[in-house]
Design a protein that fits this description.
mainly alpha
């Protein structure tokens, strides 16, 4: 009978595992890395697509007319400190007055929309009354109505009240935001009802609850609504075009058309005026962007 060979005393009796799997596991898989770099590439391409028109607008505002018309096309200006186009914008037109008008209209519109929308959203979110769902869906239905379809009756109404070519006439369509009512209703609905009940037990009035409990909780949504409404009012063109008839009441969007006519477009002045008109919106967005991010994460904008 053949003798059984025993392993040495120091060796393990278990079979040795292959080292190949451990070597493969020490390296990260290729799939997730490729997907991550693909996502980064797509985001970078999207960012460049969004950023390039603003870059082109800014560099064109620093060019002279011969530089703009030069062939082959020249991207960068010869003189980065050429501010003649900006000076000419204010010399040719009262662009400062246009900025003041736009800032006044947009600020009042944003403030009015925030106040009215938050109050209406609180009512729809935390109170029960007959026809609540009908009224809410009727308000939401207004969002689907294009503004162009109501311009004529709205103008007739404003004209009958004698508000043509006035600040009140410009403000008329923007004092209330239907989108704001929907946004605030969705946001306030997520506020726990226990907070409101506790405030009522402590003897707080409904206005006090709204001011001390609701508003501090929905600050991100309020900031988001203010930014969106300010941008909408700042960028309005059709309604000011219809209701404004004098130079002193023009807003920025109408001021941009002052540098164009049926024969040619002064691109150096149009781009300079466009840069000036974009700066206030950019400053406001950079100031309140953290609130916008919080609103997207915490409020009714999330899916």
């Amino acid at each position: 009978m053949a003798e059984r060979v025993l392993p040495p005393s120091g060796a393990s009796s278990k079979p040795r595992r292959s080292e190949a799997p451990s070597r493969w596991l020490s390296h990260p898989p290729v799939g997730p890395t490729f997907a991550r770099w693909t996502a980064v590439l797509l985001v970078a391409c999207g960012a460049l697509t969004v950023f390039f028109p603003f870059f082109w607008m800014a560099v064109t505002s620093l060019k002279t007319v011969p530089e703009i018309q030069r062939v082959p096309l020249q991207i960068l200006p010869d003189n980065w400190l050429n501010l003649a186009n900006y000076r000419e914008v204010f010399e040719r037109e009262p662009f400062g007055r246009f900025l003041v008008n736009s800032a006044l209209i947009a600020s009042i519109s944003a403030l009015s929309s925030v106040v009215v929308s938050s109050l209406a959203g609180y009512g729809f979110a935390k109170f029960d009354f007959p026809g609540k769902s009908v009224f809410f869906f009727a308000i939401i239905g207004i969002i689907m109505v294009p503004f162009q379809s109501v311009v004529v009756p709205l103008y007739l109404w404003v004209n009958r009240l004698g508000l043509v070519d006035t600040y009140l006439g410009l403000l008329a369509p923007d004092l209330v935001s239907v989108f704001g009512v929907f946004l605030m209703r969705q946001t306030i609905e997520a506020v726990p009802g226990d907070y409101i009940d506790a405030a009522r037990i402590d003897g707080c009035s409904e206005i006090g609850i709204f001011r001390r409990v609701i508003l501090p909780t929905v600050k991100p949504a309020l900031a988001t609504l203010a930014i969106i409404k300010f941008m909408w009012a700042w960028n309005h063109f059709l309604w000011p075009l219809v209701v404004v008839s004098s130079t002193r009441m023009k807003v920025v969007t109408l001021g941009l058309t002052s540098f164009t006519n049926i024969y040619f477009i002064e691109f150096n002045l149009v781009t300079a005026a466009a840069v000036i008109s974009v700066l206030p919106i950019l400053i406001i967005f950079l100031t309140l962007q953290k609130w916008v991010v919080q609103a997207v994460v915490m409020s009714g904008l999330k899916g």
